[in-house]
Design goal:
This protein folds into two domains: 2-78, Glutaredoxin (3-Layer(aba) Sandwich), CATH 3.40.30; 89-200, Glutathione S-transferase Yfyf (Class Pi), Chain A, domain 2 (Up-down Bundle), CATH 1.20.1050. It has eight helices and four strands; from the N terminus they run βαβαββαααααα. The protein has helices spanning 10-21, 43-48, 68-78, 89-117, 130-151, 164-175, 183-186, 188-200, and strands at residues 2-5, 29-32, 56-58, 64-65. It has a four-stranded mixed sheet. The protein binds glutathione. Residues 9-11, 35, 40, 52-55, 67-68, 124 line the site of glutathione. Glutathione binds at residues 9-11, 35, 40, 52-55, 67-68, 124.
């Protein structure tokens, strides 16, 4: 199996951290793709990932999987322990519920803010929109506060144990640095949760 990734880019990091949390990072051949050098737009990589996005997983039979959560679902299936996506219908639903909330209401909103306002993103986000950036910023900050309130009486994001939802939130907190935002340094419960997650070592 070959995993195309870009270090410090959040979607590939989500997959790499997931695999590391499984203790299985050495099960894949890692191939780096530089987004800043726009290698993901070259014809060779487009053949791997038609939408020119990273990460991408190529299975030994040639199958391409190019959505980070779908790649995690595949790894969950072939490496079932430790379970990170739910053991029974209730856990699966709760973990998916929180993971999707974080992805859609925090991560995507933050990415909208970043892509529409940061000068480094100008070649990738054409045209940038100050209005979209402002909406993304507002939505991301509101969701960070909601998560902080949730973590006031929960040690983990979902189902009272470590899961992909913790990984998705962790990579988003790290990614926020690109806008000089550190929600885990501003919000106390998020901060306590973040310190506990850092100790687990899945971020390398
Ligand atoms: N929904 C996709 C999104 C992947 C994605 O947007 N990856 C970013 C890096 S974090 C990318 O490839 N960006 C390149 C670009 O926008 O041109 C996934 O979760 O895998």
């Amino acid at each position: 199996m070959k995993l195309y990734h870009s270090p410090q880019a959040p979607n590939p990091d989500r997959v790499v951290y997931f695999l590391r949390a499984k203790g299985k990072l050495d099960a894949v051949e890692l191939q780096e793709v530089s987004i800043m050098k726009q290698e993901h737009k070259e014809a060779d990589y487009r053949a791997v990932s038609p939408y020119s996005q990273v990460p991408a997983l190529i299975l030994d039979d040639g199958t391409n999987i190019t959505e980070s959560r779908a790649i995690c679902t595949y790894f969950e299936g072939i490496f079932p322990e430790p379970n990170l996506m739910g053991k029974d219908p209730k856990e699966k639903a709760l973990i998916e519920m929180w993971d999707r909330r974080i992805e859609l209401m925090l991560f995507v909103q933050f990415a909208t803010w970043f892509r529409n306002s940061h000068t480094a993103m100008a070649p990738l986000e054409v045209p940038q929109s100050a209005e979209a950036a402002a909406k993304g910023e507002k939505a991301a900050k509101k969701m960070a506060e909601r998560l902080d309130a949730h973590l006031a009486d929960h040690a983990f994001v979902a189902a009272d144990r470590f899961s992909i939802a913790d990984i998705t939130l962790y990579i988003t907190c790290g990614f926020a640095r690109v806008m000089k935002w550190a929600p885990h340094k501003e919000l106390p419960n998020l901060g306590r949760w973040h310190a506990a997650m850092s100790e687990r070592g899945f971020a390398g």
